[in-house]
Structures are given as C-alpha cells and as structure tokens.
Amino acid sequence: MNSLRTFLRSGHSPTLLASFVYFTYCCGVWVTNGAMAPFIKESLQLSPAQIGLMLSIPIFAGALMRFPLGILAQYIGRKNATLVEMGGIAIALLYGYFFVETFNDLLAMGVLLGIAGASFGVALSLGSGSFPARYKGLAMGLVGAGNVGTSISALLAPQLAQAYGWKAVYGIAAIGLLLPVLVMVFIAREPDDVDKHASFRDHIACLFEKDGWAFSIIYAITFGGFIGLTTFLPSYYYDQFGVSKVQAGQLTMLAAFMGAALRIFGGWISDHWGGINTLTAVLVIVTITLLLCGLAGGSLVLTTLLMMLCFAALGAGNGALFQLVPLRWPLSTAVAGSMIGEIGALGGGLVPNAMGLSKQYTGSYFWGFALFALLSLLVLGMTRVMQLRWTRTWAEKGGRARSA
C-alpha cells in the first residue's frame, strides 16, 4: 500500500485517471464493428473475405492516424489533441448512426472509426508524462489497461445490437463520449516533460532510427495480435463453434480482458525484471499458444483457455514494450509512441484478413494462426539480437531503467 501511495504521489494521478478513461473509451469504439460482426454479416450477407476486409479497415485507418496525432500533440499539447480527436469520433459515430446502409458505407465507417484508434501514443504519454523514469512502466501499463475497452465493447455491443439493432450502437456510443470529454476537460493536466525548443526533425527522429523500427515490429506482434484477434474473435467463435452472437462477444470479452489486465502486470514486472526479459517470455508463449489454437479448432473450451493465455501474454508484452519506449526516447515519448503504435497496429490489420482468406480458400482457420505464430518466432529472434546493443547504450541488463 505504501509503495502504491508513493507511486501515485510521484506524478499527477488525476491525469493518469483521465488518460485511462479516454483510452478505454477509444479502444471500445475502435473495435465496435468487430464486436457486431456476426450481426453485420447476417444483415448484409457478407463473405468471409468481406468480413476480414471490413474488420481490418478500422485497424489500418487507426494505425495510420496515430503518428499525425502524436505530431499534433507535440505542438498543441496532448490534452488538447485528445479533445480534437474526440470531436472527430463524434462525427464518425453520427455518420454510422444516420448513413451506413451498404457494404461500401461500412468500409467508409471503418475509416472513420480509425479516428478512435489514433489515441494510443497520446494517451500513454499524457498519463505517464509527470511520472519519473522508475515508474514509467507502471504508469504506462495503467493507462494501457484502457485496452479493457475492447472487452467492454465485445460484451455490450452484441447485447445492444440484439436489443436495438446494430446501427443504434453507434448512436449509444456517441452519447457515451460525454464521459471522457468531461473527465479530460476538468481533471487532466498537461505534463511538463517535452522539450519546447525541439525542432520538427527532433520530434520525428525516431523515424530514422533502427530502434524505432525494431520496436514497431515487436509491437506488430504484441498489440497487433491483441487488436487483430479481438476484432476477429466474435466472428471466429460464431462461425467455428456455432455459439450465439451474444455468447461470441462474451467469450471474446474473456480473452480481451486478460490482455488489458496483464498490460499493467507487464509494465510493473518490466520495471523490476526488465522489458527485454519480459518480451522474450511473451513471444515464446504467443508462438506456442497461437499454433495450439490453430490445432484446437474442434474444442471450444480448449480454444478459449488458449486464447486467454495468449491474450495474457500479448497484454504483458504491450506493457513491457512501453516500459522501454520512454527510456529510449525520454523527451519525445508521445511521437515515438505514436509511430510505434501506428506501425505496430498495422500488424493487427493483417490478422482478420489472413483469417478470412485462410477460411475462404482452405476451409480452415489454421493457416492464419500458423502465419502469425511464425511471425512471432521471427520477431523473437530479432529481439534477442537487438538487445545486445540496447543494454550497452540506454538500458540496464534485461531492459531496466538506468540509475540516475
């Protein structure tokens, strides 16, 4: 308890809370189409490949918007950037409620939902900005636990769609936007951790560094896997096991909640054990569980347990990676985090596409799981090579923060 109080007093805890609420809401909105996919598929008579495309569009769009929002935040402030983004989310949800009728409309709606997916780097940097280096991992893990919004969406959106129709869910989400807006306006404070004299070139330096791209590739597995699988799982459970649309959302919620909750643990253990060590264990678990998930397509119970373990590892990996980011880029965390989040999230867009194509052309989802497991194994090898230089330059052995 004393250590928790020490942590909370070391930074501005109201801003930490505001960032968590904002990020939770944005994550929930971002995966709304995935949570309602069984309803949308039935309503518009979509093929597996069309479902894969429909689910990937918000992920790709959100990924591409992250870096521009991070750059904007460096100039107008992270708090102001969140308010600008939430204005865009309001427009997106109203478009969905009033205008979506066809598959093409749905793809356009997916692009607009991507606005919510842009929140990542700004949310984490805002929430952790006032905390010292030794607590960055935990602070970012707490804000990053806003990924729980995906599990809330998976739980509530199908029930609301069943009761009121899937288009009505967009309108209900628009009303819910009032909460993060009010919290951000009244309790958040802009941290004073940015070099106000830095040039534009300084802000985007991570684009030209190997470490930025290495982190992005790792994040394509940890967060890309998390958001891609969260978006895809309602359709997978519904098609593979014949459960109801609401049950598919509930099963997805179990896995997504594990990923969100373990993000905090990933940040905390990385502060103590090291982010590099944590990522190594994570990538091993992800590789094994994804392969086993592909082979367990006949058992709902086994698949659910394996998914929960896989998501737990992915969540811990997300926390571990972002324990390392502020150590590597202490003065431009928002931009670096947005760039890594952008490229990393693009990996998530590949998941529903790979799964849909695997099912349509081979009759099985196995090859989609196998492909992602292979990519995880390759990234593990890259991480072990890169860590030799990281621990000689900006991190202690294992990936811990260096002593002042």
Describe the structure.
This protein has a single domain (13-189, 198-393), classed as MFS general substrate transporter like domains (Growth Hormone, Chain: A, Up-down Bundle). The radius of gyration is 20 Å and the shape is globular. The protein has helices at residues 2-9, 13-30, 32-35, 37-44, 48-76, 78-99, 103-117, 120-128, 136-144, 148-164, 166-176, 178-187, 200-203, 210-241, 245-273, 275-295, 300-328, 333-362, 366-393. It is an all-alpha fold.
Order of helices and strands: HHHHHHHHHHHHHHHHHHH
CATH topology: Growth Hormone, Chain: A
| Percentage of residues assigned to helices | over 70%
CATH architecture: Up-down Bundle
State the major sheet: none
- What is the approximate shape? globular
Q: What is the number of domains?
A: 1
CATH superfamily: MFS general substrate transporter like domains
Oligomer: single chain
Structural class, from secondary structure content?
mainly alpha
Distance between the termini: 25 Å
Strand portion, in percent?
under 5%
Uncertain segments are none
How many helical stretches?
19
Arithmetic mean pLDDT: 90
Report the top-level CATH class.
Answer: Mainly Alpha
The radius of gyration computed from the alpha-carbon positions, rounded to a whole number of angstroms, is 20 Å
Number of E strands: 0
